[in-house]
Amino acid sequence: MSGLWPLTVRELKKWVRNPTFFFTGLIQPIFWIALFGSAFDITKFFTGPTGSAAASYILDGAPNYITYIVGGVLTTMGLFTAMFAGTQIIFDRRLGPMGRFLSSPIRRSSIVFSKIISSVIRILPQVVILVVAAYLIPNGLKFPHGFTIVDVLIMATAIILIAFIFSSIFSVIATRMTNMQSIFGIVNLVNLPLMFVSYAMFSRQMMANWLGDVAQYNPVSWSAEAIRTVIINGSLTASQWTQVGQWLGALAALAAGLLLLTAYLVEKEIRD
Amino acid sequence: MERTIIETKNLTKIYNGKIRAVADLNLEIKEGEIYGLAGPNGAGKTTTINMLITRISPTGGTAIVGGYDITKNSLAVRRLIGVVPQDFTADEDLTGRENMMMVSQFYDVPKAKAQENAKTLLKLVDLEEAADRLVRTYSGGMRKRLELIIGLVHDPKILFLDEPTLGLDVQTRTQMWDYVKQIQSRLNVTIILTSHYLEEIDELAARVSIIDHGKVLITGSPAELKESLKGDIISLTLSDQKGADTMKTIQGVVEVTDMGSNSVRIKVVNADESLPKIINFISQHALSTTKLTVQKPTLDEVFLEYTGRTIREAEGGDDARKLAINMRRARQ
Prior knowledge:
Distance between the termini of chain A: 20 Å
Strand content of chain B: 25-35%
Number of strands of chain B: 14
CATH architecture of the largest domain in chain B: 3-Layer(aba) Sandwich
Radius of gyration of chain B: 24 Å
Oligomer: heterodimer
Shape of chain A: elongated
CATH superfamily of the largest domain in chain B: P-loop containing nucleotide triphosphate hydrolases
Radius of gyration of chain A: 20 Å
């Protein structure tokens, strides 16, 4: 009687059937990596041996800027896609299906979890496309120590956790909301701060001190740094593993907490 | 007498601590019947339905639906009932059949059984050809028909129809009535129907409760309610004024009024019984008539009798509109 499966299938059908929604979602990662990769690359001003040493220092040892930001762009993309999980709930309420769901014997939380799970699934092809695009563009993504299953697993884990975290937050916000403008307003208010007050695009060395201090508490930083560490270093040392484990552990704990909170609040509060 | 399938006792809903949408409502609905809830917009019909389908919880009173208490055992109630809400609920990006299959999964209907049900129901409302088209391509009438059968895909014992023909043209409405009748007779399901079209209730319901300001004003079969008015009207036009004057001497009727132009208006308790008497009177006195019409009271007149206003007035009034808007706000 949970209803989770049919509702998730519904979300995915709607995604695949809407060409604009589907293809823009797939093209977006290419734009992001190409634009951010050239726009924010300050290492191009550094020349000569001193310059490359400085570049390596501010990029945490990454061979170029694209390699440095892949983890950050992946995370931001996960964040932006996940934030729209809430708008789907409001659409269901405005267009009528919510009434049908609420009068049937399904679990209330399935309505919201189907949005969260489908957001996570929608992000996965974007991840693949972004990594391939980053790899193919000139002076693009380099795996200095080869591309292994460990890279894949860390990337997938971090992005999935980020998607769970932010789709839960925005779904909870949407459970009582009927107005589309309100949720878009909230999305617009927090998306850029979440992206720029983090180590997604810039390392701590490039930031004002206060910004670097705040950014270390942003889950976006944890995900970006975890992916970056494994791409730049390949096989990790024990202390690097501990650091990556801490980032992923913190993401997992936050995701689990938010999912539980979502389940609790939605069972109680969702309405049409 | 058949088994009672829905019973409410002093069911009450107060929104925001002040708007009494439903007040001490008592209903008793028998298994297998079509039961109408009639009343103007804002009378409390939809609020009553929403409590019975466990969408909102009552402020007071109790209701038993299919043997289960709506507050203590709401999940069991939801499994038992089918709902066709006022608004469209089908997903526009899915086909009609996909919508039905999805809803069947909400009720754990086995896939083969659900496919069979969907096929039968689509055929019943003539949607077979459109079944595999996206719902966004459907006309308003088609969408209403789809809503009707989505609520039936899991073989519910009780079906709630909230304003099933609101906003439909006259032809499509008559068609919907046929479908509702067929559903009731073929699928043996109890139907609770709300409508502010009194002719719809008259056409479909075996019994009806007229509701206004959240209270039941009267309950009975449409025929009983109309008879209770004791007021059939027989209008008679005679060939001359002398004939009309003679007609005024007839005994055993409620009242004869001279309408001018050789016409009289005779009020009787029951036209079926009085008409032979009147015809005898005409032939005994060798009168010649040019026109005779019999007018039975409609449910609109019943509504007028019990509320002191017509249902159109009740809806058109500023107060009613304000109340409806307030209730909508309160529900959100």
